[in-house]
Design a protein that fits this description.
By secondary structure, the chain is mostly helical. The protein has 13 helices and no strands.
């Protein structure tokens, strides 16, 4: 009798495991199939692929995209990390409002997000006037790209960092303070290292989100061209052949960078590593 029950349980476990693997494989397969389709299309015109790989405009667009996204994430980390820590330690009536504001870019259409950023940073906007007095322009300029990427990346970084800080036992910080550590020292030496993996993971996701942004960037700064804008422009002007080639080059570079960042996150904050 026990053996029959054990056999039924084993078969049920195998069936559940098979269903989980199948459902997950469908999502992974969807991404993989799209990449294979793109690769096969590009392989049919190797000349266009080779030309795209050395095209100065493509190289410049990728460099601008990566640079603007990295700068946006750097500003996010500087401003968003203290905010995330404060949100993880705050329990009052204003917290839901702050969380809603932080998460708002998640549900906004990208064009609306771009419109909000444009209204803030246009020459006659609140920030545009202030920064304009310092000689900094955002319309059709690199700072405008950074501002748009920063806005859409807020919930990705702050949300991940907040979850990381929430996992840090507050008792550890209290012990550090009883031993004479100040709030700043406790944050830098206790909370931040323990939440470092989530912060880094959030930074990687925010960077990827910023790299892939199109509509919000176009609303603020069509020029200089980021890679998404360049691909759209080439598609409208030259059709699929040139566009597919650029997309393949970008995916290879972006995939390598994203894989390296993910590996770095695992290496720097291993679960068994001392903090």
């Amino acid at each position: 009798m026990m053996s029959m029950i054990g056999s039924e349980h084993f078969q049920s476990s195998r069936a559940a495991r098979g269903a989980i693997i199948l459902s997950g494989s469908l999502l992974v397969g969807l991404v993989l199939l799209s990449l294979v389709t793109l690769g096969l299309r590009a392989a049919g015109e190797p000349e266009a692929l080779a030309q795209a790989a050395v095209d100065p405009e493509v190289i410049a667009a990728i460099s601008i995209t990566f640079g603007a996204a990295a700068l946006a994430v750097g500003i996010l980390a500087l401003l968003g990390t203290p905010l995330a820590y404060l949100m993880s330690r705050t329990r009052n009536r204003t917290l839901p409002l702050v969380e809603a504001l932080v998460d708002l870019p998640l549900i906004l259409p990208h064009t609306v997000a771009g419109l909000l950023v444009y209204l803030l940073f246009m020459r006659s906007g609140p920030f545009g006037i202030v920064f304009g007095g310092l000689g900094l322009s955002f319309e059709d300029a690199f700072p405008g790209i950074v501002a748009a990427m920063l806005f859409v990346g807020i919930p990705y970084y702050v949300g991940a960092a907040r979850d990381g800080f929430a996992k840090v036992p507050i008792e550890l910080e209290e012990v550090a303070r009883t031993l004479g550590a100040g709030p700043g020292s406790t944050f830098l030496r206790i909370a931040l290292p323990l939440a470092g993996r989530e912060c880094l993971s959030g930074a990687v996701v925010a960077w990827g989100r910023a790299v892939g942004e199109f509509a919000a960037v176009v609303m603020v700064a069509y020029h200089p061209l980021v890679i998404s804008t360049l691909i759209y422009t080439r598609f409208t002007q030259y059709g699929l052949a040139d566009t597919v080639a650029i997309a393949v080059v970008f995916l290879l570079v972006c995939g390598a960078v994203l894989f390296g960042l993910r590996r770095a996150a695992l290496f720097l904050w291993r679960p068994d590593a001392p903090v």
